[in-house]
Amino acid sequence: xxxxxxxxxxxxxxxxxxxxxxxxxxxxxxxxxxxxxxxxxxxxxxxxxxxxxxxxxxxxxxxxxxxxxxxxxxxxxxxxxxxxxxxxxxxxxxxxxxxxxxxxxxxxxxxxxxxxxxxxxxxxxxxxxxxxxxxxxxxxxxxxxxxxxxxxxxxxxxxxxxxxxxxxxxxxxxxxxxxxxxxxxxxxxxxxxxxxxxxxxxxxxxxxxxxxxxxxxxxxxxxxxxxxxxxxxxxxxxxxxxxxxxxxxxxx
Amino acid sequence: xxxxxxxxxxxxxxxxxxxxxxxxxxxxxxxxxxxxxxxxxxxxxxxxxxxxxxxxxxxxxxxxxxxxxxxxxxxxxxxxxxxxxxxxxxxxxxxxxxxxxxxxxxxxxxxxxxxxxxxxxxxxxxxxxxxxxxxxxxxxxxxxxxxxxxxxxxxxxxxxxxxxxxxxxxxxxxxxxxxxxxxxxxxxxxxxxxxxxxxxxxxxxxxxxxxxxxxxxxxxxxxxxxxxxxxxxxxxxxxxxxxxxxxxxxxxxxxxxxxxxxxxxxxxxxxxxxxxxxxxxxxxxxxxxxxxxxxxxxxxxxxxxx
Amino acid sequence: xxxxxxxxxxxxxxxxxxxxxxxxxxxxxxxxxxxxxxxxxxxxxxxxxxxxxxxxxxxxxxxxxxxxxxxxxxxxxxxxxxxxxxxxxxxxxxxxxxxxxxxxxxxxxxxxxxxxxxxxxxxxxxxxxxxxxxxxxxxxxxxxxxxxxxxxxxxxxxxxxxxxxxxxxxxxxxxxxxxxxxxxxxxxxxxxxxxxxxxxxxxxxxxxxxxxxxxxxxxxxxxxxxxxxxxxxxxxxxxxxxxxxxxxxxxxxxxxxxxxxxxxxxxxxxxxxxxxxxxxxxxxxxxxxxx
Lengths: 252, 306, 291
Description:
By secondary structure, chain A is α/β, with parallel strands linked by helices. Chain A is built from 10 helices and 10 strands. In chain A, the strands form 2 sheets. Chain A has a 6-stranded mixed beta sheet, with helices on both faces. Chain A has a 4-stranded antiparallel beta sheet with strand order 2-1-4-5, with helices on one face. The longest helix of chain A has 21 residues, at 119-139. The radius of gyration of chain A is 19 Å and the shape is globular. Chain C is 73% helix and 0% strand. At the B-C interface, α4, α9 and α11 of B face α3, α4, α9 and α11 of C.
């Protein structure tokens, strides 16, 4: 299967509200897919369904051919679903570096038993994780603030840290939830470059964004969602020029 | 050996004995629903109400109803003090749930110790004599206490129902229970609503303790175990359901009454704890499956938004 | 000398109890009042193994650790699967329920208690026990400190800060909570075992909710987010009653008075100094909130 992510007929409703209505979607390695639509269209909910925050009512979700529906949140992340959050969700009591160090899961330090019985391998794994984390921070030009508490850095830097933390995962899928919101200047540039690099390296990336120029810049194709349904999918230019979509979007 | 008469008797007595449990369960569930706090201080309120009434009846010689009013007043004052000086402070500070838990639980323990110091650990009762006049109806012993207890409970629960569903303040309570932020925006004085909730709960508690005390006796640490019963009933009835809790309390009371037939008395209190476990395991949202399930906020807040 | 030694034994035991409880409630954020019951399980395991089977003391205490730990799964697994709030309620039921069972079980002596636990130290009894208790306490505190400063401690802290984000990084939060609970409870069991060997006589009343209040007070007053906080709390709260004994009050008042002082202290600290006497180290804080 060359599809990194396959959604087929995914449905979800909360009481009377349909957040996902027969969503069918494929994403290949190296693709950057934009997810656009008005607020309440179900974009973040789709991310929540894929990452496992809540289960779908029906339909299938597969990662590189492997069905995800039975897997709980943490297992899907280990299978390779990495994501960022609309509200960042950084670990507020820790430094930038520590936030990244929480991420690795192939990590003996997690198991208390291994900690006690295999102290050396824990230390080595910690060292490796640290190196990877610093490498990512360097790519994002954040090495200088590695030791700063995440509450003490700028908003743009916080967003970058959120992305960096997701990148610690070596999985094939990256879900970015409004990474650009409120970000401009150097941080914007860095983020754009990083996303491009990740896709070029073979990751499948899906981005929820309201920032049209970001979508135009980066995404190969885009999907327009409204009221839980995918209305159109196609290349970015055509989509953005569609009159009906403009009405739906800006007419809101 | 087990004839219909005996069963009927057990049923009747069990029913009568669930009355105070119903009021206590309703009080606990009400605070849980509106103020959204596990009011472990209820045991403390129960103790305060009880011993105040004991003081009034046995030491000051007051008539029952006057003592009840005094007991209710004491419980109300204590509950309001806790809400205004304690809970509001912690709410303002955005303290974690752990703080509320420790605070309310420790308050109950503190009351228990004060009562033990002041009143000693001898069992005390509110009534001069626990025996009350009884009649035989259809072969079943029906005492005056039974009738009074059931009547009082039914009336109080009906009143509570009317207050909650038909009065303006009741509507405010339900609104604040569902969404405090939104209610505040609509002009509901949430703080006053919380205060009213505690007043209602305190009244229910005082009446419950009066009923209990005129039939049995108690020591300072009895309320803690009684409160556990109320907690289980509140859970069983559904976390936001005051009347569900009341029904659950009756059910549990009857269960306990009938269990005497099969379980030796030494193991009686164990049923309570076993029930607690079963409730948590199989009915975490309460037995009323028809209700919309109340999921944990974390999942919902992540779900909110496009 | 004898008196000082027995006080030291108590200090050692309560440092272990307070520290292990702090692991559960302060670091893990798991609200439970069932700590005394694991203390009891360790003590009774030792009691039964030593009186019925004459098992070697070290083995008995290890058994106490294991029994307490296994029992903790009975509590944590069903409750945490639903939500953290339920752990609180089930822990109340667990604490009270198991104690009821003990009171009714004849082979552990029922309500009148289990006595005749053999004396395992012939010479300088109190000093040896004091040394062991304090030694274990030091080991536990240092072990917890190492744990908390390392990657596991970081994981726990992240879990407290934002559990959803934590889980979405692939970490198994449930596992961590269950493990913390098990280790904390197991350590309480170890303290229980030592307690049984020292006092040689156990009754269910020694493990009531009063114990809960005392341990909770030590943790809250000492400082919930720090490793040394419970140590300070334990020492302070054990020395306090010694100070009150000078008042020469009748014992019926002493017990409740102690309880009164403990609970008042907790409430005072909750209002005036919620972080306790020993502030948490830079990385760790008692309140884990997000947004």
